[in-house]
């Protein structure tokens, strides 16, 4: 996750002209043999002109990963990538896709994770990540809870309330250090 977050941080802040991927989803993330992640498929990427922080577009991204303002109004900013990244984190650590048939009507992957915090993390976390017999069970559970909270910070309804990718990278690195300790 840190590789993908770092790539987005670079696109948003490291380029002369900020680049918005616009269609971040698991199939646009490749892993090499060392499990290093790379962001790919920039087919509908957008460049922010100097002085602009938002663009209007008619090109739509993938349902389930698309920020509300993008799908409803066609508004694109770096915060749409942040939203998509949050959904990908939820999917990765819960092993549930936003398109899963259990997510109908008012229940979404985001609301399911949100409702599980703080007391039911074990019920939504990928069982392969947590074994109750694991001697570091509580530490892992705490880190997964921190990851889900971070993911929710990426997926707030209003883009101006979302965390930025610089802060996402910093937070993920803190969580990794805690897990490695």
UniProtKB/TrEMBL annotation:
<protein>
    <recommendedName>
        <fullName>Protein kinase domain-containing protein</fullName>
    </recommendedName>
</protein>
<feature type="domain" description="Protein kinase">
    <location>
        <begin position="1"/>
        <end position="175"/>
    </location>
</feature>
């Amino acid at each position: 996750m840190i590789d993908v977050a770092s790539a987005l941080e670079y696109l948003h802040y490291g380029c002369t002209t900020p680049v918005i991927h616009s269609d971040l989803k698991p199939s646009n993330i490749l892993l090499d043999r060392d499990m290093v992640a790379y962001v790919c498929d920039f087919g509908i990427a957008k460049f922010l002109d100097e002085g602009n922080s938002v663009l209007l577009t008619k090109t739509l991204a993938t349902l389930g990963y698309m920020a509300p303002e993008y799908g409803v109004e066609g508004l694109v900013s770096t915060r749409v990538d942040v939203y998509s990244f949050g959904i990908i984190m939820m999917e990765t650590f819960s092993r549930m896709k936003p398109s899963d048939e259990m997510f109908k009507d008012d229940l979404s992957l985001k609301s399911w994770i949100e409702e599980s915090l703080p007391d039911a993390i074990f019920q939504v976390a990928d069982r392969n990540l947590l074994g109750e017999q694991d001697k570091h069970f509580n530490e892992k559970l705490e880190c997964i809870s921190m990851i889900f909270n971070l993911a929710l910070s990426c997926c707030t309804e209003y883009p101006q309330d979302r965390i930025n990718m610089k802060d996402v990278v910093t937070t993920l690195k803190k969580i990794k250090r805690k897990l490695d300790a």
